[in-house]
Amino acid sequence: MKSVLSVVAIVLSGVLLIGVADASGSALSGGHLRTPPVGCSPSHRCHLVKGTYRLGSGTVLPGLRFTLPSGWSSGENDKGEFNLVPPGHPHATLFVWMDLLAVKSTGPGHGTTVLTNVGTTPTALVRWLTRNHALHVVSRPSPSKIAGRIPATTLTIGVSRSAHYGDPHCPANPRCADLFTSGLWSDSYGIGGAEQAQLSLAKIKQNGSQHTMFITLDAGTGSNHRGLITLRKLVRSIVASFRLPKSVTTG
User: What pTM did the predictor assign?
Assistant: First the structure.
């Protein structure tokens, strides 16, 4: 299973020049904004210096801006995902995703079987999450905001004690559940054991097309609700700084 979840930024005035980023995410030329490097992976994270960033071309949401304190890193920055990992918590992650697909959560075909009867809008995906017998709803869906202005729905989920994953590769088998995949992923995202995920889903429009944006917090395999609470505190200022590109509007 793909493990743990992304995201952030601030509004800056004036014209800003963006430099090319080195392996530490620092700007090599002009301006106030940094560009996070691509080619990061969970085993080779890119360390990001303190400052303000904007995602570059070929990423999950080009133009996304955010501000980081010191010590953070990224394990992925491409078209399929952008994530941020806090210092001192290597298994906790803030994820940013777009247009994910619901997959079969447990049993044969879990994680690879796309549920074509589940829609891709926030409303359809939240309905599926809250009615999925493999999942436990920790906090009910509630209205929230992304970037301070875009309406979203936020909920927290865990794995049901009655889940039957049916795969010994799950470290907490049978209490594992796959949730989503993407046409850009070779695997799926899932959680296991006492692990919990907080998901915020928003309907946005970019260049005339409708999309579903995901902001997800996951404290990692082996974590529990307390770990998620800690992660919420760590990402609070980052999420507050999150600003979407001007090309994105409320769906």
Answer: 0.87
